[in-house]
Input
Amino acid sequence: MIKALPFDFPYDGRLVPQHTALLVIDLQEDFLSPTGYFARKGYDPSPLRAILPAVNRVIAAARAAGLTIIHTRQGYRADMADMTPYEKWRRKRAGLDGTDVLLRSGPGFQIAADVDVAPQDVIIDKTCNSAFTYTDLEMVLRARDITHLLFTGCTTDVCVHTTLREACDRNFQCLTVSDACASGDQYAHEAALHMVTVEDGIFGALADSEAVIVALRQLADAAR
Output
């Protein structure tokens, strides 16, 4: 089990590597680079880069324990045929017309080079805040009989939280790794983490990376 709040995860005490996946949300150059989408929107990407050591430690422990690792990438077609009128309006309003930010054809779409990605990891490309919307994420999870999800990535208050909420509604057991998530707005980050634990864990449980790694190493040792 993982020491967590408001309860140790999972609630029933059965953490099975084969039924657990680690989600690494949107750790792309467009969010982490000083010249990417996030920075051009006026946000400081340094808090997002700061979580990479913790994220990579969790990835390494999850991989050693036999968990499925799933990375997501946010972006649109080069011709923006899959971008809604509202998103096009927001893009223009931000002065991003004519740029390749958040387009799959641009370098910013790629996962940051500092993130630990292995050939066997699953990559889910998305156009919405939730990694479930218009993607095959749920099919991948159901096909692998995955019932438990660990959440890392950015941003805590938008894509991480939107995916988390939808995962809970789809009856996945969820844990958010507090210091392996980040936002450009510290208030929003802290509020999103707080929301996980209200009402006795309405959106699952919350733990720091060290607690997660300790539990995953115990699983790996038990399998030897």
Observations:
- The longest strand covers residues 173-182.
- The chain is about 40% helix and 15% strand.
